Amino acid sequence: MKSILILTSVLLGSGLLLTGTHQSAKLSSTTTPKLLKRANASDGPVGNISIIVDKSDYELSVYDEKGWYATYPVVFGSNGLDDKRMEGDKKTPEGSFHVISKRVHEKWYRFLALDYPSKESWEKFNLRKQRGEIPASASIGGGVGIHGTWPHEDFIIDKFKNWTLGCVSMKKDDVLEIYGYTPIGTSVVIRQ
């Protein structure tokens, strides 16, 4: 009996160590996220593009007619990586969206607005209300997009510091770049 208890403790402990190691390596301040592009990327993306934001990897990847084009480091809402549930929860929504407008932003350099809440967002929101997972008086929120950081604070991306109210935040030069080649109507998928 004693050996079973010790074996179980060892197995559980090693699982926790592996999980903890993976997470701390991902969020370590010594790990610096890098912009990655395909070899001939100097010409820019070819044809229509789409964007996939992977919250668990802190990455925004751009795809064009040739396939993968580039991957940029990003951060999110300041209250964890879970899906947005309601207005004010400071979480970044998950689902399929589109860029609906673009503008120069006085604080964050550029802003690419997304069509959150989408039909899919409303369905999840209403289901959560029906289940009692969020207050009946809750609102869904809005104003979610992709933007830069505060001036001179690109380091926040390097430290994987989630700080927004629910948007996706990029380094200044990165948001300036994607702003230049991302048209209104571009598909954006945000996933865990």
Task: Based on the model shown, name its key terms.
192 residues, alpha+beta, L,D-transpeptidase catalytic domain-like, 27% helix, 26% strand, disordered N terminus
Question: What's a quick, concise take on this entry?
Answer:
By secondary structure, the chain is α+β, with helices and mostly antiparallel strands. The protein has helices at 2-27, 119-130, 155-158, 172-181; strands at 36-37, 50-54, 59-64, 67-75, 95-105, 109-114, 145-147, 168-170, 187-191.
- Any idea how many domains? 2
The N- and C-terminal alpha carbons lie at a distance of 41 Å
Question: What is the C-level CATH assignment of the largest domain?
Answer: Mainly Beta
Q: What is the third-level CATH name, the topology of the largest domain?
A: L,D-transpeptidase catalytic domain-like
* Overall geometry: globular
Strand content: 25-35%
Describe it.
- It contains four helices and nine strands; from the N terminus they run αββββββαβαβαβ.
- The protein has 192 residues and is α+β, with helices and mostly antiparallel strands.
- It has two domains: 1-31; 33-191, L,D-transpeptidase catalytic domain-like (Beta Barrel).
- Strands 2-3-4-8-7-6-5-9 form an eight-stranded mixed beta barrel.
- A hairpin with a 3-residue loop joins strand 5 (95-105) and strand 6 (109-114).
